[in-house]
Amino acid sequence: MYVSGSVRDGVLHLALAGDWRARDVPAIEAELAGLSWQGLASIELDPSGLGALDLSGAWLLHDFGQRAARSGAVVSYPGGIPEPVRLVDRTLQDAAGAGAGAAATAGEGTLAGRVSALGQTVVDRLRGGRRALEFVGESTLRFLAAVVLPRRWRPISVARHVYDTGITAIPIVALIAFLISVIIAYMGAQQLQKFGADIFVVDLVTVGVLREMGVLLTAIIVAGRSGSAFAAEIGAMQLNEEVDALKAIGVVPNEVLVLPRVLGLVVALPLLTVIANGVGLAGGALLCSFLLDMPLVQYIQRMQEAIGPWTFWVGIIKAPVFALLIAAAGTYCGMQVRGSSRELGRLTTVAVVMAIFLVILADALFAVLFMEIGI
Amino acid sequence: MAAAAIDVRGVVNRFGRQVVHDGLDMTVLEGEVFGIVGGSGSGKSVLLRTILGLHRPQAGEVRIFGTDLTRLDDAELRAVKASYGVTFQAGALFSALTVLQNVQLPMLEHLSLGTRARDELAMLKLRLVGLPPEAGSKYPSQLSGGMIKRAALARALALDPRLLFLDEPTSGLDPISAAAFDELLIGLQRELGLTVVMITHDLDSIFRTCNRVGVIVDRKMLTDSLEAIVQNPHPWIQAYFHGDRARRFGVGHGA
Predict the structure, then answer these.
(1) Which residues touch A77 (CB under 8 Å, ≥6 apart)?
(2) Is position A195 within any domain?
(3) CB burial of residue A350 (10 Å; 0-12, 13-18, 19+)
């Protein structure tokens, strides 16, 4: 029991008891809600029996007083107002503006609110597009400026990124290339065996891996690994004001943060693709010799016939372009991080999705291009 | 004499071969403002983390209101953590939440309040630390340094703790804001009967707010009243309270 009430001479007398602390608020609230002062003009509160009274408890008393006053009853403390209640009363005195915090977001439900939200989104998207364009433009200019000044190539930084994005990715890239080519060979063999055309499995694996699968899978893995890492690294630096520090030192963030990553990945991705191609072909050979009883010599012979003058280059030529897209998406998203940890997470996700989308889009364009020029 | 709110006995903290605290004792009485002072790297933050139960010392005991933290399991520690409020050096407000949501987070975790009570109580805490109501719907990145410190204090007060830890509450504030923060703190401490432990380097702040001061020197703590500690012959303490910076302030009492 926190409150016990009795009526004397038209006055509701409430004796308070127990501890009124933050953790007791729900129970006390329930008890206060059960009180009725219908027809009574005056309520007297007696806090003498209270144990502890903290601010949350005092707020309940303050709130009770306000509600009573609204229904025309006068609340008084014959024994003096407890100090915490006095503090709450004083703090919330000019509470007229207290609703302003909630009101700031109020306009959302209305039609006008929705229209303006839509407009805001469109404007934000357009601004985003312009920022991306600015980013690409500035990075290109920085790159061109750096090309003529080898001192600005930052070889150590580039090497670090080649290591981080390339060397450390070898195991996973090799494993996935191996497994995918085994799957292609297996599925292909199942179908081709029906026509007695087993030998064409070799063409399927060789051409498939060299032209498409090797580079595409590598690019997608790297987009997931390094695209996200770029965005998170640069984004965290943004949150820590490290990017501002760079600017203040007179260093162009674009030059030290973006260019080494782009260059590093442009070097690393073609090398990774070569490894993925090699492992992929080996995987195909392994499956053919175990499952189709095809001697290795025959496989290699057939492979040499399947590889045209352009087969390898068609694949490898795409790698630097994919690298450029992945690195640009990652670093761009990282640079856009502002303010909060949630923004960092969102933009890291955007970086990966954008990178993979751009890679596949570019791959489609390449396919059309190569078909048109007939290689 | 008031009871001890915090009683630290013989705490040893070691990281590898580096000994940070070697038998450190510290007692904070209920209702006082206790300042922790020490050179950079003297282990003030480690001590704070130890008292908060975020770091387990290699030896010694840490009692908060009589409960020894070093012997508690996670569930029991959680109950102790609801009994104190902390502000961290850089504010450590959750950047993905608004200021009001930041204040409500401890309430959500530890109390089962209705939405209205939670909103109103959080708003009360914001007003209490002198933030305008509009600040409630802002994100931490939209606040000034002084407002972040105040918002962090509001979050620390969310559960109406009797004990408050402040890690460099006035660092990074201009002298006027720092003085205003000190006044706010003194007012709250007096009116809510809080026990306050604060790490600070701000001499003005120490002389304005603290009843007693603990100085970490030589991996131990020397504790005394402010008047007495400035007379301590230890060279670091002499340099701290009577150095050029202190004298320039005119706060080097008895110098």
Answers:
(1) A44, A45, A46, A47, A85
(2) yes
(3) middle
**Which residues of chain B carry a pLDDT beneath 70?**
1-2, 245-255
Is the residue at A106 inside a domain? no
| ipTM score of complex | 0.78
In a domain, A302, yes or no: yes
User: Of B179, B180, B214, which Cα lies nearest the Cα of B196?
Assistant: B214
User: Phi and psi for B230 in degrees, rounded to 5?
Assistant: -70, -20
Q: Smallest Cα–Cα separation from B199: which of B20, B9, B85, B44?
A: B44
Report in angstroms the alpha-carbon separations of A76 from A44, A49, A65, A95: 5, 16, 9, 20
Q: Is residue B47 part of a domain?
A: no
> Which residue, of A84, A99, A114, is where some domain finishes?
A99
Number of domains comprising chain B: 1
Q: Is A236 part of the contact surface with chain B (CB cutoff 8 Å)?
A: no
Contact criterion met (CB < 8 Å) for B132 and A341: no
> What's the pLDDT tens digit per position in B199-233?
988 888 888 888 899 998 888 888 888 888 888 88
A341–B96 C-beta distance less than 8 A: yes
Last residue of a domain, one of A99, A114, A144: A99
> How does DSSP classify residue B243?
S
CA dist B24 and A61 (Å) reads: 44
pLDDT at A100 over 50: no
Q: Tell me, yes or no, whether A219 and A325 share the same domain.
A: yes
Give pLDDT tens digits for A300-340. 999 999 898 888 999 999 999 999 999 999 999 999 998 78
Q: Is residue B141 part of a domain?
A: yes
- Domain range spanning residue A337? 124-373
Write down the pTM of the prediction: 0.72
Domain that residue B140 falls in: 95-159
Q: What is the largest CA-CA distance in chain A?
A: 112
Among A29, A59, A66, A239, the residue to mutate for chain B (most B Cβ within 10 A): A59
